[in-house]
User: Which sequence fits this backbone?
């Protein structure tokens, strides 16, 4: 048994996702409190693992594992956990981490704390703050036993703290790819045509405050600088300033991005229906009584054009 | 094709959730079907409609009110419904998964579906756990399942519209995120008809001894501190812009 | 006049024609009887008589198209006259010596004066008929009145598409012209003694064509012989309406407008034509195919593929093909493929305009609701927004996915306690409704209603979380089971409460509570808040302190308050008492134009492109106000929470902010009475 923390990182197309770095950063903090090591675990080939600020990195560098496979990843991690007996195993509560974390918990009997927004050490033991019931409640939980599994919501910790370099120890995969019941067949690429706003992590959403079609370009520029996509309220779409595929709301699409930056949208319930579960909502509106300020996380009573232009200068 | 759908009855988050002690005050909340379960039921019925077979819907009856959800499932096309009479509203995912897998064990399922997640999965989702307890492979985030013989073609979603196709040999457990078609609507008259005519099979909970020993201890539960109002960024437009950019950078969003 | 051979031929023809006509009507009646049972009708002879009177005075057609209706009235009188004329012609043909020309002076003891009067009327009517028919034919074939055509996206029977209706009209039109001309000619050829002053038209023709014995015979045969063919034809053509519409009017819906027929227990709703009640099978035979209903249909206006008249016309053609034609199997084609497209079915706002305007008492809207009912049972994939609303209604008792316990939250924020009617007795049980309870935009108005009730000393309470959606629109979406469930929930809540009457803010709830809850044993006195407020003012319990002469206002009659329940006066009276400058929009009261939200439309997840009815209505209001001086604030007054949402949106989308403002009447009453929102009122979270 060790006091080490294994961080199960995630990658796709040769790039690690942000949550991987976030967790590594957090793991370092926890490891020093627990007197163990923060170990980044990279499963699969086709990616350079020397990018983490972890104390050490284990790379199961097997080309057969390059594409995510829940069964194979689960078995690899289970074997690793048996071998290393860590104190904590961290997953991202993502579409990949979700497949393995709870399975591992049931296999090993170790408790799992999901939807984690924060993890800390209190009096030598782990305390996790989890977002339960769709964010309606926050729960403080203490995983008991020798090992704990924590699945972290993306965006909970800073990315920078996990970035760095540590050469990895390479390991062979303990799993016989031929015996797997789940087989990766092929990747499915996003469909063509107009962008799918429901699949975007960041949206710059414009309302009637944008004033006219000619101003949409400003929003496009801002979106580009942020790596975001432009979406809109219905009036903007009705006016033909943007195609219907960009409409958010009751009669449009429901979105759940990490960032929803709203420029000149009042916050009618029909619009809210489509975006209220966005992770970070920032609203810029000239009307300080605009209802959107009851829903947004951050707001500013300001002119959208001035703010957008000033932001462009800074980005 | 023998498909078992494991469902979860969970506190409705349409209301504010009152807290009692260190958990939800289960006496003063409404229980509803987990929204993703509607998709897994739909996916199961779609497969049955295309290749034949039976759909069994099974859930843990936590407060004695699961019947309505089961009748709904029948109205949507399930053939058989089973409830595990636990009468323990605080039962966590591990316990429910254990009870469910004990009950599913003898059913000869080719596929077991569960909703990809539920809002009360504080200790993880039941799908992967059922898979672990039944020693079947699990695949989650599933957006379509097509049965062909003794294996299935399963699409899993990643972020940004990307995804991947997998071939999975049966039996397996899938966590359904969305059915290929929106879950059908079951008219209330049909549900009521089911309530009058259908039988709900009852199973006693069993097999939970080992999971009870390793709990995730809940220390505290409380609504998050929200102001009900956005935190206002003050200052000139330039200052506002600077603060927004700073905020985005700190969250890794710019 | 006729020779013996001619007489024999005539009698044989007449018997054959009667046979065909009988067969025609028998087929029609058989087909009507195949329909499902309809709600029982009371006192049928009296209502048939009443309908007869209405038809005689052509009352029902004047609800729209005044000029054409006047011409139709002439045509109608002309044809009635012609029934007698034809009888006389037959008598002239068969009875030797019976001849009406010259005042019937060749008939022994003839009442000359009467005959002359009859001759004059018949002669003038003949001329009028020719003119009227020509007008209608010109309208259809030369002017090609758009009102007689359908939108391209409307599902039409192939025969209709190929111009079947036009051919029908042309046949009958040409028949009438030939019949009338031949009749007059048959008289003209007999005027051996020169002009008859009581037959100016015949005399005129006589001056051209002269006298001819052969001519008399030929003309008689053309005029009366034709009838032997046309009468059996009529029973098979759209002109069956001559006979069927008076009957249909006589058998028209007797229940309140706001009460839908209860669906059958087994296979509820309609998939095939004969799943409709017999009354609504009859509708299609009665249909004049005048398209008046299409003219007033908001969905049709909005470019949706819905035309209530096409629905009736398609039903009629389907029946014709199946019963008179050789395609009985056509009746086994689902209505959604043969009569109305699914998209059209789901475009109806259930505004009742089509039923109200129909001169012959048809109920296309009721068919649509029945079709929806069956589509739901059959698992048709309904619009996602509607589905979400229904699911939320089933679990939360409201369509807005809000928790039950949040329903009374606004009341807890009031500066005075609002009674819980399920816990203590109240005089007025206020049924608040979903929109007024949950929508942040409407809640300030809800609170204002509470304040005015409070100020007026009204003993009132609400049912807090015990209230469920009334189910009005749920029923109109076709979800009868859910409607029943909601009724049961509300009836249980009412059972816990003690009250004298119900007051509602929402016209939709008002309608179903008043007209449909009695079907479930809930007979209450139900009032709309406009009536309650008016009473408080008239009784001096609320005093108007400020006259609002600085406002120029118009008023929108909500379908479920106005057209459905006749609540036209209270809001207008209120506005008058408030002292505003009132302008009536052209489409008002019975003829009000739907905002487009009803019948579940407000739940729709997909919004079609095109000018929305509400937008059109805002434009109508602005046109009503005219350019004029803008010194006064122009207001669009509503008395329905849904209208508040629909029209506020429409003002924005038509770019008319600053020109016109949407307000609930409560806001004006509050201003006039001098109530303001308390400064310390807690802000809604
Ligand atoms: C139950 C459920 C419901 C959902 N509902 C919605 C919804 O209503 N609306 C909506 O918009 N989305 C929805 N999603 C998708 C959701 O927004 C996220 O995709 C999902 O929650 C995981 O997000 P994430 O940002 O943590 O991980 P993601 O960023 O989605 O990561 C997914 C996987 O892809 C890889 N990856 C992705 N991006 C990168 C990158 N840039 N670099 C390296 N690797 C990368 C990672 O390895 C990771 O394993 C839902 C997801 C789930 C599971
Ligand atoms: C049945 C139905 C369905 C609907 N479905 C949808 C839907 O799916 N999606 C949807 O979005 N809407 C929908 N709506 C419309 C909805 O009710 C609102 O009308 C709409 O969301 C308002 O859009 P908005 O916020 O862009 O415009 P507005 O409400 O007009 O808001 C514009 C805002 O911009 C601000 N502004 C103006 N100029 C500036 C400036 N220079 N800088 C900063 N701020 C400025 C103003 O203060 C105002 O708050 C629906 C309505 C109905 C009735
Ligand atoms: S009820 Fe109204 S919307 Fe429906 S068909 Fe009739 S006129 Fe059209
Ligand atoms: S249903 Fe009535 S209004 Fe409509 S076309 Fe027929 S007769 Fe005219």
Assistant:
């Amino acid at each position: 048994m060790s006091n080490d923390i294994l961080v199960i990182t995630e990658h796709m197309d040769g790039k690690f996702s942000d949550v991987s770095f976030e967790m590594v950063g957090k793991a370092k903090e926890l490891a020093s409190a627990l007197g163990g090591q923060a170990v980044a675990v990279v499963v699969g080939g086709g990616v350079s693992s020397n990018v983490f600020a972890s104390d050490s990195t284990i790379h199961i560098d097997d080309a057969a594992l390059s594409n995510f496979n829940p069964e194979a990843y689960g078995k690899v991690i289970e074997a690793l956990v048996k071998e290393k007996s860590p104190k904590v195993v961290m997953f991202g509560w993502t579409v990949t981490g979700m497949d393995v974390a709870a399975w591992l918990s049931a296999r090993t009997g170790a408790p799992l704390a999901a939807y984690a927004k924060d993890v800390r050490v209190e009096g030598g033991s782990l305390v996790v703050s989890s977002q339960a019931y769709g964010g309606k409640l926050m729960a403080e939980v203490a995983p008991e036993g020798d090992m704990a599994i924590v699945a972290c919501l993306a965006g909970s910790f800073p990315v920078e703290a996990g970035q760095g370099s540590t050469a990895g120890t390479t390991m062979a995969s303990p799993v016989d790819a031929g015996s797997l019941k789940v087989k990766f067949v092929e990747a499915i690429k996003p469909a063509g045509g107009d962008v799918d706003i429901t699949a975007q992590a960041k949206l710059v959403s414009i309302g009637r405050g944008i004033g006219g079609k000619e101003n949409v370009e400003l929003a496009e520029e801002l979106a580009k600088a942020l790596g975001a996509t432009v979406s809109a309220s219905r009036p903007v779409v009705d006016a033909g300033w943007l195609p219907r595929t960009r409409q958010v709301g009751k009669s449009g699409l429901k979105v759940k991005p990490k960032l929803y930056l709203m420029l000149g949208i009042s916050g009618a319930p029909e619009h809210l229906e489509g975006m209220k579960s966005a992770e970070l909502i920032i609203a810029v509106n000239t009307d300080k009584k605009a209802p959107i300020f009851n829903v947004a996380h951050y707001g500013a009573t300001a002119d959208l054009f001035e703010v957008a232009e000033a932001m462009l200068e800074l980005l | 094709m023998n498909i078992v759908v494991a469902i979860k009855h969970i506190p409705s988050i349409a209301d504010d959730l009152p807290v009692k002690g260190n958990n939800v005050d289960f006496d003063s909340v409404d229980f509803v079907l987990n929204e993703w379960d509607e998709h897994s039921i739909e996916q199961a019925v779609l497969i049955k409609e295309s290749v034949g077979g039976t759909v069994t819907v099974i859930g843990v009856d936590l407060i004695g009110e699961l019947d309505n959800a089961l009748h709904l499932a029948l109205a949507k096309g399930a053939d058989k419904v089973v409830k595990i009479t636990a009468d323990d509203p605080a039962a966590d995912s591990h316990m429910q998964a254990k009870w469910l897998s004990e009950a599913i064990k003898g059913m000869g399922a080719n596929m077991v579906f569960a909703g990809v997640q539920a809002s009360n999965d504080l200790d993880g989702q039941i799908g992967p756990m059922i898979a672990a307890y039944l020693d079947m492979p699990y695949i989650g985030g599933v957006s379509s399942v097509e049965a062909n013989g003794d294996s299935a073609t399963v699409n899993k979603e990643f972020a940004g519209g990307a995804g991947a196709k997998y071939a999975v040999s049966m039996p397996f457990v899938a966590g359904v995120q969305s059915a290929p078609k929106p879950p059908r609507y079951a008219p209330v008259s049909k549900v009521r008809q089911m309530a009058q005519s259908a039988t709900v099979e009852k199973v006693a909970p069993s097999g939970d001894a080992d999971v009870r020993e390793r709990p995730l201890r809940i220390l505290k539960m409380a609504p998050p501190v929200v102001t009900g109002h956005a935190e206002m960024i003050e200052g000139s437009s330039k200052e506002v812009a600077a603060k927004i950019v700073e905020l985005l950078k700190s969250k890794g969003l710019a | 006049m006729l020779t013996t051979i001619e007489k024999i031929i005539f009698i044989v023809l007449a018997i054959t024609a009667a046979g065909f006509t009988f067969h025609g009507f028998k087929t029609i009646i058989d087909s009507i009887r195949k329909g499902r049972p309809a709600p029982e009708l009371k006192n049928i002879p009296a209502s048939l008589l009443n309908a007869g009177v209405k038809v005689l005075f052509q009352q029902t057609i004047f609800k729209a198209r005044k000029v054409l209706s006047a011409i139709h009235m002439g045509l109608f009188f002309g044809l009635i006259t012609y029934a007698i004329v034809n009888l006389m012609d037959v008598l002239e043909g068969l009875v030797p010596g019976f001849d009406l020309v010259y005042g019937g002076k060749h008939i022994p003891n003839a009442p000359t004066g009467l005959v002359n009067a009859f001759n004059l009327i018949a002669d003038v009517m003949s001329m009028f008929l020719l003119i009227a028919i020509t007008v209608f034919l010109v309208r259809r074939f030369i002017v090609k009145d758009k009102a007689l055509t359908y939108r391209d996206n409307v599902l039409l029977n192939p025969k209709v598409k190929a111009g079947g209706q036009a051919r029908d009209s042309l046949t009958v039109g040409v028949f009438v012209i030939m019949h009338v001309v031949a009749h007059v000619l048959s008289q003209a050829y007999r005027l051996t003694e020169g002009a008859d002053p009581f037959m100016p038209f015949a005399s005129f023709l006589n001056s051209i064509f002269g006298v001819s014995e052969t001519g008399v015979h030929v003309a008689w045969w053309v005029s009366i012989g034709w009838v032997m063919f046309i009468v059996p034809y009529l029973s098979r053509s759209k002109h069956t309406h001559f006979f069927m519409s008076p009957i249909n009017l006589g058998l028209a819906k007797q229940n309140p407008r706001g009460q839908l027929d209860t669906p059958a227990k087994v296979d509820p709703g309609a998939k095939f034509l004969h799943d409709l009640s017999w009354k609504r099978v009859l509708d299609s035979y009665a249909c004049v195919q005048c398209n008046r209903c299409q003219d007033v249909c908001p969905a049709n206006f909005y470019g949706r593929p819905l035309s209530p008249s096409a629905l009736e016309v398609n039903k009629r053609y389907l029946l014709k093909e199946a019963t008179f034609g050789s395609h009985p199997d056509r009746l086994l084609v689902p209505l959604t493929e043969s009569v109305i497209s699914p998209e059209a079915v789901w475009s109806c706002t259930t505004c009742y305009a089509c039923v109200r305007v129909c001169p012959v008492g048809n109920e296309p809207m009721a068919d649509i609701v029945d079709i929806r009912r069956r589509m739901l049972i059959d698992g048709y994939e309904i619009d996602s927004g509607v589905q979400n609303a229904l699911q939320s209604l089933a679990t939360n008792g409201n369509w807005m996915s809000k928790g039950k316990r949040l329903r009374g939250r606004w009341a807890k924020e009031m500066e005075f306690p609002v009674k819980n009617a399920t816990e203590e007795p109240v005089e007025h049980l206020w049924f608040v409704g979903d929109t007024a309870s949950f929508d942040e935009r409407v809640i300030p108005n809800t609170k204002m209603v509470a304040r005015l009730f409070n100020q007026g000393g009204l003993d009132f309470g609400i049912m807090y979380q015990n209230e469920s959606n009334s189910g009005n629109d749920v029923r109109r979406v076709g979800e009868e089971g859910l409607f029943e469930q909601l009724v049961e929930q509300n009836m249980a809540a009412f059972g816990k409460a003690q009250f004298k009457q119900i007051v509602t803010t929402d016209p939709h709830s008002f309608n179903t509570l008043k007209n449909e809850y009695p079907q479930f044993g809930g007979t209450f006195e139900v009032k709309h808040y406009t009536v309650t407020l008016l009473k408080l003012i008239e009784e001096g319990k609320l005093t108007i302190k400020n006259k609002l002469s600085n406002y120029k206002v118009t008023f929108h009659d909500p379908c479920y308050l106005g057209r459905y329940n006749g609540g036209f006066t209270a809001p207008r009276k209120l506005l008058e008492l408030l002292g505003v400058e009132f302008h009536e929009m052209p489409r008002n009261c019975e003829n009000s134009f739907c905002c487009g939200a009803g019948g579940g439309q407000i739940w729709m997840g997909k919004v079609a492109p095109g000018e929305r009815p509400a937008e059109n209505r805002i434009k109508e209001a602005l046109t009503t106000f005219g350019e004029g001086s803008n010194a006064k604030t122009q207001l669009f007054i509503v008395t329905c929470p849904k209208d508040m949402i629909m029209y506020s949106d429409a003002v924005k989308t038509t770019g008319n902010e600053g020109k016109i403002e949407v307000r609930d009447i409560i806001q004006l009453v509050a201003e006039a009475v001098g109530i303001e929102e308390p400064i310390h009122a807690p802000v809604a979270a």
